[in-house]
Design brief:
By secondary structure, the chain is α/β, with parallel strands linked by helices. It is built from 7 helices and 5 strands. The chain has a 5-stranded mixed sheet with strand order 3-2-4-1-5, sandwiched between helices. The longest helix has 18 residues. The protein is globular.
Length: 179
């Protein structure tokens, strides 16, 4: 059986201030480092075979904090955070999730990466990685938007109803077993 472990990076100063980071390269803050250390024990006990991570600093720091001496870590650009366009460095209150997470509307206004492109990028990653790692334990360390998409892809949810109904907090951890 192939097992996927989805992990969102630990907290950054921007996260704690509700600032949208997008693809900005930020470090974990003290709380993010601590939560990563706490999650490490769980991850190590699961016997991860391989780890894929976004190349941004906050995900690299999380991935290395979780499995640096225990599993191969591979950076993959397909795991980058969603391009947030004009919303980078803005307060989350300025962003309308109902508009930008509406799969049918599929808006790319304001330079935000459209939802179908984000889902396609995530699907491409999974279609590539899962067959190469059949019957292994795969850790994926990424960002809220990517983790949310992978959750829906791997669980075959109805995108028209479920897209906004899953919270992905910092240090989020989910296990998905595939046949």
């Amino acid at each position: 059986m192939t097992t996927i472990y989805l992990v969102r990076h630990g907290e950054t100063d921007e996260n704690s201030k509700n600032i949208i980071q997008g693809r900005k390269n930020t470090h974990l803050n003290t709380k993010g480092v601590q939560k990563t250390k706490e999650l490490r024990q769980t991850i190590i006990s699961l016997g991860v075979d391989i780890c894929y991570t976004s190349p941004l600093l906050r995900t690299l720091e999380t991935a290395f904090g979780l499995v640096a001496d225990k599993a191969l870590i591979i950076k993959d650009d397909r795991l980058l955070e969603r391009n947030m366009g004009i919303f980078d460095d803005k307060n989350i209150k300025e962003y309308n999730p109902e508009k930008y997470w509406d799969y049918n509307l599929n808006s790319s206004d304001d330079g935000v990466e459209c939802l179908t492109d984000l889902f396609e990028r995530c699907q491409n990653f999974l279609d590539d990685v899962i067959p190469k790692n059949r019957d292994k334990k795969i850790l994926i360390v990424s960002h809220a938007s990517v983790i949310r998409c992978m959750h829906h892809i791997l669980r075959n949810t109805d995108l028209n109803k479920e897209k906004l109904h899953i919270s992905i907090p910092n240090s989020y951890f989910e296990v998905i077993e595939l046949d």
